Structure formats: structure tokens, C-alpha cells
Amino acid sequence: MSSSPYGSWSSPFTASAVAASSPRIDGARFVGTEIWWGESVPQEKGRVSVRSSSGSEILPAPWSARSRVHEYGGGAWEADGEHTLYFVDAASQRVYKVTPGADPLPLTPPGPSHGGLRFKSGRLLAVREDLSVEPHARAIVEIPVDGSAADDASALRVITTGNGFVAHPALSPDGSRVAWVGWENGRMPWEQASVWVASVEGGLPQQVPTRAALQPEWLNDNELIFADDPHGRWGLHTITLDGVNPTGPARPLTSADADIGYGLWVLGNRWYRVLDDGRIIAVHTNGRDEVVMIDRDGAVSPLPVPGDGHVSVDDASGTRVLLSGNGSRVTPGVWCVDVDSGEVVTIRGGEPTDPQWMPPAVSLEVEGRHGAVHAFAYPPAHPEISASDDELPPYIVFVHGGPTAHVTGASSAAIAYYTSRGIGVLDVNYGGSTGYGREYRERLNGQWGVVDVDDVISAAQFLADAGLADRARIAIRGGSAGGWTVLSALVKGGAFAAGISRYGVADLRMLVAESHDFEAPYIDGLVGPLPSHEHLYVERSPLTHADRIDVPVLLFQGEDDRVVPPSQSEAIRAALAERGVDHEYVLYPAEGHGFRNAETIVDALERELAFLGRVFGFEPQL
Fold first, then answer.
1. How far is residue 499's CA from residue 496's CA, in Å, rounded to a whole number?
2. In what order do the strands lie in the sheet with 272-274?
3. Which of 22, 354, 440, 506 has the fewest C-beta atoms lying within 10 Å of its C-beta?
4. What is the structure's pLDDT at 575?
5. What is Dmax (Cα atoms) for the chain?
6. In the predicted model, is pLDDT for residue 576 greater than 90?
7. How confident is the model at residue 22 (pLDDT cuts 50, 70, 90)?
8. What is the structure's pLDDT at 319?
């Protein structure tokens, strides 16, 4: 084995290889004898295609299935057993259908956005969002599949409408009622969300008392199942109905030190499926995921599958289920699992990773100022190169966005891009992250910019104190809310020698002024409501104290970002420039909140590596 300084190792994980590897999977369905799935195509500007196990592309270019409902979208395509695809066109936000051999046919009129598609018994439900009216309106609608509503909005059947938010529509087996999740404008869905039930023929919807409900499904015509967390962990509950009215309180079906569900950011997630025989396949999350089978008597047993991170139970047919997600020992993929035989068939991706290049992440629990801090460490790894014994590796601390989200310790070519070059990665689930229960999630309430910053600093200091990282060469990198934590940690100073912010938040008052509907009340819970807490908005904003940043900073921003607009990155850039602080700013045209184009992904990774090499004093090999 040869010796070379950390950061300078040669690697097969080029930025181009990272951009081309492991596309984002967007759901999967059984369609006749085939399996269909959605996936992003970075080489085609990140468009989302739908493809088949037969080898055909169901949704070819230039079409792209992507929703903008609630800004983050989700549930942008569905299919029936007759090989008909229903999808939300990314450009127009209209719903189209594609039958074999035919061109896409519009099903909804121009104007509103759609998402969260659900197809059952020949009927198509969707979430509709109309931002052209004041106040903005959202609805659950039934879309005629014959195209009669393409030019006539009155042909849509409106199940419910209002100014709040809705998700996860589910049609009853007899087709007479719809259940969904709803929450009021002024709350986030993980704070308070209810199950609602209404007749498709009209009448007042009825509320099922819940705390933070997710994914209602029908067990039969008179019984609903859904996830809720009344006692601190999302678990499954059932309730009996008389028509649309509950006959009593919800009954817990499961109890575990794990969550079935997490933050409802997108409309397409599915954390469980009910099989025809009444058994349930569900995802338990406690940091990493575990897929389990829940028998009719409530007994829970693990179901061995390759995926253990952000696993979605996308569909079920007989004894088979379709899972998509990522894993600590495999690349992201789609798997078909027979729950009786245990057979696992890989449909897309899911290749085993080489442990010499991508060893599984090490799960850490670090003591912090506010309690335990969870993280995943990826030490440098190379089968042919090592550094001298007297050198400690540089590290880059990853900070996820959200902040109500989490990472799972998954294998990733983007992480191997660094570790295979001799740069360690520490991925931190700071207080406020999902995946560890409500108490951990609510640790950030009123403390954004405090708990998250303290936790990432505690995690970084743990590595340095343990002699695992070079204390003088630890950088921090994050996007969106993670970018806020990056900038806030640099303001606090002392822990990080460099920072990389991707479309990060720099000024809270600016964020609130420019925020979209879905996240408008988010900062009320994370910091406090205006105007009574304006002093905290000023005090905690990195822009207020940009004069305290004294280490190099790399800023990335998407020009079309509507969640965190360029004004945020440009404000911090101007403050750094005024003081002559070493910084770089890159604005990417045609990119929004999260980079999708292959060219952008490549350029950003190569700039990051060159930046770290310049700051930390090594010669990287791109």
C-alpha cells in the first residue's frame, strides 16, 4: 500500500461519476406483469422519467413528471393495470395521461398545480393548489380520466377545498368516501395534522381526532388505519367509522421505540402498505430504517431487505411489495420482495457497494450541551493508499436541510467522492431531526440557530478529541436550513476552518418575507412569532454578525430558487466582500432549491474539492 497525504489520494469517484450514479428514485408501481418506477435523469437537466422493467421508457423526453404543490411536490405520477400512466407535467403542472402508443392527453385545465396522485378502482384523486387566488386555495379533487375536465374545471369533482393544506387522499373500497390528512395554515404537519373523511357526494367533512397524522388508508369500508404520534413516536392506529363519523377513539395497533413516518415534506411518501390478507409491511425508523411485517395479531417481525434508509413501501400485490430507498451497503434502488418466500429481486439500482471503497457508516451518539447528538461517521477509505501515521485526516461535517428531516448513514457516491480521497465525512442528525421521536424533534422548538449549531460543534469536537480528525482541518457543509447552520456555526467560530453553504438561509426576516405558504409558519415554531420575537430574528441571523466570520466560505445558489431565493446568498456574499473575507460565490442558472442538472452537480463538487484543497493545504486529484 502506498502512502500519500490525506486529501490528495486518487479516486475512481469523479464528479461526473457521482452525477451519473444512483438517480433519485420517485416511487414504483406494479403495472400488469411489469414494474414501473420514476427516476431523475441528471444528464437531461434532472427531468423525472417513468421507466418499466420491460426495458421501455414510459415517459420519454421532453416530458418530466414533477409536482410543485406545497413547493416540494411529490406523488407526481400514478398508473393503472391497463398500462396507462397519469402524471403531473413539470412545466405546466397539469395532469396528463399516456396510454400505450398515444401522445399525452391533458386531464386538467391550465393554471393550478397538482400532486399526490392516487389511482384506485378506475378513479384518479389529486391534491390541487391554486396560487392565483387570494387567499391561496388547496383542494382534494377527483379528475375524470376521459379528459372532460381538460378545458372545463367544473368537470372536476371537488371533495374538499380551503386555505389549509391537504395530503394523502385515499378512496374507500366502495368508492363512496375519501380520507385525507389536513392541517391549518399556521401549523406544520408534524406539529398538528388530522385525518378527515368526506363523502364524494358532498357534505361536511368529519375530523378524526389525531395529533400529527400521516397516510390514512382503508382496511375495509368501515375502518381506517393511519400513522400518528400521540405518545412521542409515529405508530399505526385504527378507527371505526359509521359513514364519515368515527364511532369511538382511535386504537393503537403498534408500539415500538421507532417511528412509522417522518416529516411530511412531499406528497408521495408511503411508510406502510396493507396486504390483501390483512398483514402490514411497514418501515420502522430509529436513525436507520428497518422494514417489518406486522401480523394480524399485532406480532412484529423484521423483513430482511437491502434498503435501510428512507425506505418507501410504494406498492403491494398479493404477497409482493415494492420498496424504494437507499442502504448502508447498497446503492439507492427499487426492490420487489415476496414477504412469504423472502425472495428479493432488484429492479433498479441497489448494487452492493465495495466495502474497501465504501465501508458502512459508523453510528455515533455524542454527548452535547442539550443531550445526546446522533451522527454517522464515514472515515477516509482507500484499498491502495493510506496516509502517514503522524497525520490526522481532514473532515467535512455535513448538515442536512429541513431542519425537520434526517440522514440515515446510507452509502453514497457523493460521500465516497470525499472519503476515497482521504477526507472524512461526519453526517449529523442534530437536535430537531426526525427519526428519533417527537422529543428529539422538538428540541429545536424556539432554538433554531442554537441547538443545531451546538450539536454540530459537539459532534465535530468529539472527532477531534478522540484523535480521529485534524482539529485544524474540519470544514462544515450544508444546504438550505443546513446552510443556515453552516453560517451560524461560522459566526460562533472556533470549531470550523471553512464553510460551504448551498442556498443557505442568512437572514430570518428576509426568509419570512419571501417564504412560500407551506413554510410560512415554520419559523414561528423554530424561533418565535413576529413581531414579539423580532429581536431573536435579528440576533440569530448570520447576516447580522457576518463580521464575526473569519474563515473562508464557499457559497452556491440556484438562480430559480423560490424556497431560499438568491437574495439570501447574495446578502452574505456582500457582507463577506465588504470585510475582505476569503469567499467564492457561484450562481447556477436554471437551478432551483436543490441541484438537479448534471453539469451543476459536477461543477459544485469539483469546486468544493478545490476549495478544501486550497484552504487545508493539499493537492486534490479531481
1. 7
2. 272-274, 280-286, 288-294, 300-302
3. 354
4. 96
5. 74
6. yes
7. low
8. 97
**Separation of alpha carbons 400 and 412, rounded Å:** 14
> Mind listing the pLDDT tens digit for each residue in 31-85?
999 999 999 998 898 899 999 999 999 999 999 999 999 999 999 999 999 999 9
C-alpha cell at 381: 477509505
pLDDT of 559 higher than 90: yes
Neighbours of 531 (CB within 10 A): 7
Contact predicate 267/74, CB 8 Å: yes
Q: What is the residue type of 505?
A: V
String of DSSP letters for 114-166: EEEEEEETTEEEEEEEE-SSSS-EEEEEEEPTTSTTSS-GGGSEEEEEESSEE
Long-range CB contact pairs, 298-306, < 8 A, 24+:
298/253, 298/254, 300/254, 300/256, 303/337, 303/339, 304/342, 304/344, 305/335, 305/337, 305/344, 306/330, 306/333, 306/335, 306/344, 306/346, 306/350
User: For residues 387 and 480, is the Cβ–Cβ distance under 8 A?
Assistant: no
CA distances for 167 relative to 115, 144, 266, 270, 568, angstroms? 9, 19, 9, 12, 30
pTM of the predicted model as reported, rounded to 2 decimal places: 0.95
CA-CA distances (angstroms) from residue 397 to 131, 301, 305, 467?
A: 38, 35, 29, 16
| Nine cell digits for residue 321 | 411489495
First to last CA, the chain: 21
Q: What are phi and psi of 157, to 5 degrees?
A: -95, 120
Q: Which residue has the higher pLDDT, 258 or 597?
A: 258
